[in-house]
Amino acid sequence: MWTLLAALLLCWIAVSALMITLYRKPLLALWREPLLRDPVLIIESDDWGAGPTEQATALSALQSTLDHYQDRHGQPPVMTLGIILAVADTAAIKASLDANGKPTQYQRISLSDPALSEVRKAIMAVHDAGIFALQLHGMEHYRPASLMQAAHNDKQVADWLTGPPLPTTEPLPSPLQSRWTDSSQLPSTALPSAEIDALVAEETSRFNNTFGQPARVVVPPTFQWTVEVEQAWSDAGIRTLVSPGSRQTRREADGTLSSDGSQQHNGGQGHGQIHYLIRDAWFEPAMGHSAAKGLQALQTRSQLKRPTLLETHRFNFLGEQRKASLNELDQLLRGALQQHPDLRFCSSEQLSDRLRSRDPAWIEPRFSSRCATFLQRLRPIPRIGKLARLGAFGLPLSIAQLAFRPNQTNQDQQ
């Protein structure tokens, strides 16, 4: 009997040692990730800004929907607007066609130009109302030089560059919608450091000049960026980067995004002064991501004491799909407040500040809760979760949870 127990103990020690040896860094990062006291919901919406003038009407309709709700602290729902500052001036580019019908000179229309004054005024109006928060998405939703190069061999791209004015970028091939790699040919190639620095300086300066405030949060187009871009954003004053959980640095030969293997967590520090927020759930009604799916995502992340950042895009609220998407948004907000009376609304910048400062009104301090949540967060992770289920962390964390709960409860009551 004692021999069997000794063997089991040795196996448990071996599994634990293996887990700690192989996964020390990700385990430590996961342990350090803050735990939220209350559920948090943010609607993260991208691609607003330079583009169709009907955005002005769409933003007004969104404001009317959001205005109907508030959390128990009196805060209305916040929708972030990932701002695109410029789009192709198709008329000017068309005028530059060479003898073979190929565009030779890229020109842009920026959000500060008179042609987009209606859209810019609408953005400022909803921002001033306090329920829309502005975030940098990019100067354009692409790298202009890559688009011009691709246009020489891709009729779809050439037609887009010389087509109707103020176009949307969704029709462009997905690889060309990435801004921080040269996708004119696949697999993509890295951009020179000097070009990265110049592009970041240009877009952050333009954001400041357009809105009278610096960009503090950035959302990389197609979630593709590199370490060099991240450092340049930090140097330019960006403090929060919205990430899918890993840095995707390039496009492969088939056009898919490729990660550098990094793992990021809410509140974790990146390069320079950058901190991460993780957006890994979707609310795209036009693509079948309904209110019910959004509520399920909120439930799952709230159980793990993580915020829920729901990704949505401008196209859901333009054209014929607007009414249906607004209806889904209404159902989402109503259901979220019904299921989570303690729900908090805030902007991504506000949440990042709370995580960075470890605000005790927002962050769960109890050790017993951290132990239990840490184990729950481990379970769905490939390989690590399997080792955790074998008991490498389950037994000691369960013991710690039981041991610390009485003391923490007494402290809470005091």
Structural features, described:
By secondary structure, the protein is of the alpha/beta class. The protein folds into 2 domains: about 40-355, Alpha-Beta Barrel (TIM Barrel), CATH 3.20.20.370; about 365-414. The protein is built from 14 helices and 13 strands. The strands form 4 sheets. Strands 1, 2, 5, 11, 12 and 13 form a 6-stranded parallel beta sheet that branches. Helix 2 links the parallel strand 1 (about 40-50) and strand 2. Helix 7 (about 195-210) packs across helix 8. The protein is globular. The two termini are about 45 Å apart. Mean pLDDT is about 90; it is low at about 405-414.
Q: Which class do the helix and strand fractions yield?
A: alpha/beta
Number of helices: 14
Order of helices and strands: HEHEEHEHEHHHEHEEEEEHEHEHHHH
**CATH architecture identity of the largest domain:** Alpha-Beta Barrel
Keywords:
disordered C terminus, single chain, 14 helices, 2 domains, alpha/beta, 14% strand
Secondary-structure blueprint of this entry?
Layout: H1 2-32, E1 40-49, H2 55-66, E2 79-84, E3 86-88, H3 90-94, E4 108-110, H4 117-128, E5 132-138, H5 144-151, H6 155-161, H7 193-211, E6 217-218, H8 227-235, E7 240-243, E8 248-251, E9 257-259, E10 275-278, E11 281-282, H9 291-303, E12 308-313, H10 322-339, E13 344-345, H11 348-357, H12 367-378, H13 384-389, H14 394-413
Parallel strand pairs: 1-2, 1-12, 1-13, 2-5, 6-7, 7-10, 11-12
Antiparallel strand pairs: 3-4, 8-9
Helix pairs in contact: 2-4, 2-10, 5-6, 7-8, 9-10, 12-14
